[in-house]
Amino acid sequence: MNEKQDLLSLYPEEIRQILTENGVAGYRAGQIFAWLYRGVRDFDQMTDLPLPLREKLKDLFYVEAFRDEACIASRLDETRKYLFTLSDGEYVESVLLSYKHGYSVCLSTQAGCRMGCRFCASSGLGFARHLRPSEILLQIDAITRERQREDPSFRVSHVVLMGIGEPLDNYDNVIRFLKLVNRKEGFGIGYRNISLSTCGLVPRIRDLEREGLPVTLSVSLHAPNNALRDSMMPVNRRYPLEELIPACREFTRKTGRRISFEYALIHNVNDTPRCAEELIGLLGGWMNHINLIPVNETGNNGYKAGSRGDLAAFCALLERGGLNATIRRTLGADISAACGQLRRTKSAGKG
Ligand code: SF4
Asked: Whose CA is closest to atom 4 on ligand 1?
């Protein structure tokens, strides 16, 4: 007998095909898909399906599930940070953020990360495995269900793939997730409401461009020259700025979508007037946006965040040079919403 299929990772057409191959009417796929997105995971609760079919579904499919491990709510704003345990005991984190335009979730795409960025809390624990599409979707589902207990009208409207993991290192699963989360029979989240963040895997940026999905690409830049970027992000040695920046320009030219560059300011490292000048040289004259954030002081890299004044001064230098730069509002400051920290604490207590 064939292996059971991960039902939440399948498109309705694929469910339909498996059903018809097994002698079941294809229209049942729509009913099953609808139950899944109403939060029903037990085939016995899919009450409009005949009993023999429910039994058959148990042989053909399994429904991925994970446990809610922890939820920490900010006292300063509506930010909430979640830790989930996957079916094999791995941990992932997600963050819920509240904006004027609606609720946004920041999701993990891998259990751990193998990119090794020096400023990141996720890199210290190494890489366990890629997440399947179902495991990325379930983060939205679990947050939605938790919030709907207080507000039945709660709905996630925006998705940011900026949690634990490098999304483009888990390319096929992430692309499938994007197509599933966009389905109107599912969460129905528009591509334009989705941001995907990468540390700069150039060949995958080019692949993403060819997919033709109008998501926003966000690139973790953090340094304006190769020497500095090499010291912060090992990926730069494989794909240096002279490859990354042309790939980004090409992405913008082909998709018409403005790239957002993330730049975490580290005091006396990448926030000097010289760095601002180099950034202007790198990003001036084409459509992009720079998001400035204070670096997250994770404690073991020696990086220090500058003051609000340092951030504002750096931002002003970029603007004077013609760049489109903003200082990103820090949400959930009291629960340190940066990725990887809950997982780090939990994993450190394992075994
Ligand atoms: S910043 Fe992103 S890509 Fe870099 S180590 Fe952290 S999770 Fe991985």
From this structure: 117
